[in-house]
Automatic annotation (TrEMBL):
Gene field: eIF-2a
Family statement: Belongs to the eIF-2-alpha family.
S1 motif domain mapped to chain residues: 13-84
PANTHER family associated with the record: EUKARYOTIC TRANSLATION INITIATION FACTOR 2 SUBUNIT 1
Organism: Candidatus Nitrosocosmicus arcticus
Protein name from the UniProt record: Translation initiation factor 2 subunit alpha
């Protein structure tokens, strides 16, 4: 979504962010944040099921909330809304969408200032990004995770790509960390060196995952895999464990492992 885009009227069934303007005995007047603060109405019958004693228990003046469009009159520019028809998932998704728009707008404001672009120049960048991404913020997040090569098809100037990369470093990317404890022995004169070489062959960054191996105390080692989601991390851990096991057993060693609890972390890429 282009952050410079302003639409005239919402569509029937659309989920919108509003600011409550005035609460009355029959409902609430609100302004549509994404539609140039167009005034719309939330009737008391669409606030909650059952009898409502106090409307302000559900909506208050100056409050921002998520509502659903249930009627649009394009001739008179009238919009009616519902609170009770909004599901928890719809609310969560809309709030996330708005946050993305705000963060994307903030990033573009910084780029506009740093590069000395006018609004037309910024709009041109947004249009190119929108060819590939639904939200401007998504481009920055993609760069934070995978690098500037994700922008190679967008025909952006080098200084713009550099500015996007700089701003993307501010993004905290959630990562999943999965771990296991390895119990390894190789009863040979150079057994320690064999173990070090085998563990070193899987230690490092591979396939969007980072693998760290630390020494706990003979004969135990901890392997930690960090990745952007559990599926990728789990796959990398299983592949690493299988490779270590195979090579240890080739050297007449013994191998056992036990899993540890996974956890979610945040990383500035």
């Amino acid at each position: 979504m282009s952050i410079s885009e302003t639409k005239k009227l919402p569509e029937l069934g659309e989920i919108v962010i509003v600011t409550v303007k005035e609460v009355t005995g029959h409902g609430a007047y609100v302004t549509l944040d994404e539609y140039d603060n167009l005034t719309a109405f939330l009737h008391i019958s669409e606030i909650a099921t059952g009898w409502i004693r106090n409307i302000e228990r559900y909506v208050k003046a100056k409050q921002k909330t998520v509502l659903k469009v249930i009627r649009v009159n394009p001739i008179r520019s009238e919009v009616d809304l519902s609170l009770k028809q909004v599901t928890g998932e719809e609310k969560k998704s809309k709030v996330m969408e708005v946050k993305k728009d705000e963060k994307g707008a903030n990033f573009m404001d910084v780029i506009k200032t740093n590069l000395g672009y006018d609004q037309n120049g910024i709009r041109e960048i947004e249009e190119k990004i929108s060819q590939k991404y639904d939200f401007i913020y998504d481009a920055f997040e993609a760069v934070a995770i995978k690098g500037t090569e994700v922008l190679s098809s967008l025909d952006l100037r080098p200084e713009v790509i550099e500015a996007i990369e700089l701003e993307s470093k501010k993004i905290q990317i959630p990562h999943i960390e999965v771990r296991a404890v390895l119990d390894i022995t190789v009863r040979k004169g150079d057994g320690i060196d064999i173990i070090k070489n085998i563990l070193g062959s899987v230690d490092g960054s591979k396939n969007n995952s980072k693998i760290d191996i630390t020494y706990i105390g003979a004969p135990k080692y901890r392997i930690t895999v960090t990745s952007e989601n559990f599926k990728i991390a789990e796959k990398a851990l299983n592949q690493a464990i299988e490779k270590i096991k195979t090579n240890i057993e080739k050297n007449s060693g013994t191998f056992k492992f036990s899993r540890e609890e996974s956890k979610k972390t945040h990383t500035n890429i």
